[in-house]
Amino acid sequence: MEDVELDGGMSKTLHSGLRVLELLSAHPDGLTVTEIADGIGVHRTVAHRFVRTLEAHRLVRRDRAKRIRPGAGLVPLAEPVERDLRAVATPLLEELADECGATAHLVSQEDDDHVRALLVVEPRRASVHIAFRPGQLDRIDRGSAGMAILAARPARADERTEVGEARTRGYAVSYGEVIPSIYGISCAVPGRRDSAPISVGVSLFDLADEQRLAGLVGDCADRLARALG
């Protein structure tokens, strides 16, 4: 779960309720009330009240085994988030995933220190590929997606050497920084002056054909920039 530091202007109760949703999002097969209580560090009775409230809003549901799962009420809440961006990007990332035979991703800067995966597209014809869920939060200075975004900015004295290298070559490469033993190659999407910076990239097992992959990722980033206007 995301590490949020509470201050005096925040609601501790709401914070705990939101942590229930974050916990369930990481366990789509469901959790018991006791497991939820242990996961967010509260008494079982308190966790039960959180679950009952979230059930009333259809944000969680109980399956036949009485395990708590994410509910359908989350869908309309998430659907408006970057709707136009995801709609435009989806066919381009589908094409990128199939051309590379690798999982493609669209990542957006969340805050000064983090990026979040907005869209993850798996290749349709690859025999094996990497799988991870949209919504994943990672440090901006770890992994090719965040480093590509940093490389699109002016150089800083305290930046990683890999960011400077990405700025020089035009794309970022990482290995094992987000998913163990997995390569990432990403390019920033240009022209996002008034919107959150974004990058597109692929995650794959082998980077033997780096130049070809970099060309495909860069072309996808440029096409997405043109499509977004």
TrEMBL record:
Q: Which stretches make up the HTH iclR-type domain?
A: 11-72
Keyword DNA-binding assigned: yes
- InterPro entries (UniProt xref): GAF-like_dom_sf, HTH_MetabolicPath_Reg, Tscrpt_reg_IclR_C, Tscrpt_reg_IclR_N, WH-like_DNA-bd_sf, WH_DNA-bd_sf
Q: Which residues form the IclR-ED domain?
A: 66-229
Q: Which domain of life is it from?
A: Bacteria
Sorted UniProt keywords:
DNA-binding, Transcription, Transcription regulation
Which is an annotated Pfam family here?
HTH_IclR
Keyword DNA-binding appears in the UniProt entry:
yes
| Protein name in the entry | Helix-turn-helix domain-containing protein
